[in-house]
Amino acid sequence: MTKNSFIPAILTGLMLLSACSSDPRIMPNNHMQQLAANFSQRDIHGPLPSGWRQLDGTEISYRFANETYGVYSVTTDQQLLVIHLEDNSTGNLVGLDQPRKCQWTSIADRLTLDCEKFEKSWRIYTNGPDLIAADLEEETYAVMKKRSTY
User: Which pLDDT tens digit goes with each residue over 13-50?
Assistant: First the structure.
């Protein structure tokens, strides 16, 4: 290998290494970061932005059954949890101190998780492709992104 071909090979290797070592807990793209910025200062009880609507229980079941989602905080851009929900109302939650088994429901207008020592209830909003979870108890939002695995 010549001196001139060695430098591009090293640069390519460093780029691949940095891509593989990127932190999966950070929001994966600028679009999601913009969503987070838009919702981070929004009043949880205020009207939805133009083009957004709340999902009902049937739509929540359709979108979340047999899927895995990362749940990212809008205030820190960090992934809080990864949820995988099965169509039989069971699921797994990863991201706390240990993985937890869960039961989930989508009654009326909420996605509710009942896990070992952890409960969460969200209203889910969408503009079509994007999903935002609103935790009315904690008065916080989170961006939800479909993932291939957990």
Answer: 333 333 333 455 566 678 888 898 889 889 999 999 99
- DSSP letter assigned to residue 122: E
* pTM metric for this prediction: 0.78
**Hey, what are 126's tokens?**
């969408």
What is d(CA 145, CA 150) in angstroms, rounded to the nearest whole number?
12
Contact between 122 and 105 under an 8 Å Cβ cutoff? The reply is no
Spatial separation of the C-alpha atoms in residues 128 and 118, rounded to whole Å: 29
Rounded CA-CA distance 94/73 in Å is 15
For residue 100, what are the CA distances in angstroms to 63, 65, 92, 112? 21, 17, 6, 15
In the block, which residue shows the tokens 């981070």?
40
What stretch of H or E contains 62?
helix 57-64
